[in-house]
């Protein structure tokens, strides 16, 4: 991937970001992420499939509940919505090319501003989709996933697919249809549903059962429409327990998996897991990855981190090598992502106001994942990590333990085994040894 200077440059003064290795002191270079380096038979680029999140990088203007925009974008100036959107897209493709980000992800309204008119929104999205197709072909950058924003507009304050008003639900469907059309036209590899307001603020006014049935019906209709129109990618549900609603139906990986199973959606849907959503649900990210991997549903991830001192979704760029190393161990053991990749659903801080800050954020995140990949590979290949876990369960590998796993023993058989074999020997879980092993490889 190589940036070639066009007519306008939005990130002037910043050139192509390249791998320079550990000896480099250049803050505009990768020290670990070497896209062509082969790890476990695949290039780093293929393992990691990094994606840029359009919303945080090109729309998120630093506003928070206490104050307005601090990031003033030069690509957000033109009067006509589609012209403005084209400028933004030029900036986005310049950034992604300079950063060597091979994929991107968007919500419909990230690409182009929407109105209250369904047909006009479709026209705008089609116009910017045609432009995006050219940009993709020119740069080689691909669409990891598209989605529809069914949470920002006031009409969705009580949800979209789970709104108690059918009329609102129909507007959600109109948006999803157009976003699916755009995703298909752009060769999008996946399509995401994050249930932003699919939940409730108070049970006093909520028929939870009916809302969840509506959500399932809505997902089936979207899936059927997309399949009928040639979409062969994977649908992802992105779990999050709360925020903006008090309670979201897609609470965590385990909840989503049982929902998919209950409503017969397992053939088409997998999970897109986000670090900060896991911690909001009271889990580690590793826990969520393991739950999804064990169900064969580890589709993709949204990379970011929370803040340990507060309880909301701060969407900061990744920083914690221990967390990522343990995560990469699970991802590698699962055989990688199923269809997805690593989308930086992360934003630079309100007071990170220099244009170069977006580069530092992505360089840091990409380097950290690359480093975690190398460390995890080393741990799997050269340490006793896997062996120790295997040995911990060895009593189920032979004899009565193996018979139990096969389903050949009754409760009485277990009782007889206990009575005949006396008290079990004390066995250490070796947690501190394993924690040291991880740190030793870092
Ligand atoms: C919100 C969030 C979303 C989804 C896409 O917390 O993560 O940006 O990733 O709708
Ligand atoms: Co996300």
What Rg, in angstroms, do the CA atoms define? 24 Å
**How would the global form be characterised?**
globular
Order of secondary-structure elements: EEEEHEHHEHHEHEEHEEHEHHEHEHHHHH
Question: Which parts are unreliable, with pLDDT below 50 for 5 consecutive residues or more?
Answer: none
- Number of E-state strands: 14
Active site: 107, 110
InterPro entries: Xyl_isomerase-like_sf, Xylose_isom_bac, Xylose_isomerase
Keywords: Carbohydrate metabolism, Cytoplasm, Isomerase, Magnesium, Metal-binding, Xylose metabolism
EC number: 5.3.1.5
Question: Any overview of this molecule?
Answer:
The protein is α/β, with parallel strands linked by helices and 442 residues long. The chain has 2 domains: 16-381, TIM Barrel (Alpha-Beta Barrel), CATH 3.20.20; 385-438, no CATH class. It is built from 16 helices and 14 strands. The chain has helices at residues 44-48, 54-59, 81-99, 108-111, 118-139, 166-185, 208-228, 253-262, 275-280, 285-294, 321-333, 357-382, 385-392, 399-406, 411-421, 431-441, and strands at 18-19, 29-30, 38-39, 42-43, 50-53, 103-107, 142-147, 190-194, 199-200, 234-238, 247-248, 269-274, 298-303, 342-344. The strands form 4 sheets. Strands 5-6-7-8-10-12-13-14 form an 8-stranded parallel barrel, surrounded by 4 helices. Strands 1-2 form a two-stranded parallel ribbon. Helix 11 links the parallel strand 13 (298-303) and strand 14 (342-344). Helix 6 (166-185) packs parallel to helix 7 (208-228) and helix 11 (321-333) crosses helix 12. The longest helix has 26 residues, at 357-382. The chain is globular. The mean pLDDT is 97. Residues 194, 238, 274, 302, 345 line the site of cobalt (II) ion (CO). D-xylulose is lined by residues 107, 147, 192, 194, 238, 240, 274, 302, 313, 345.
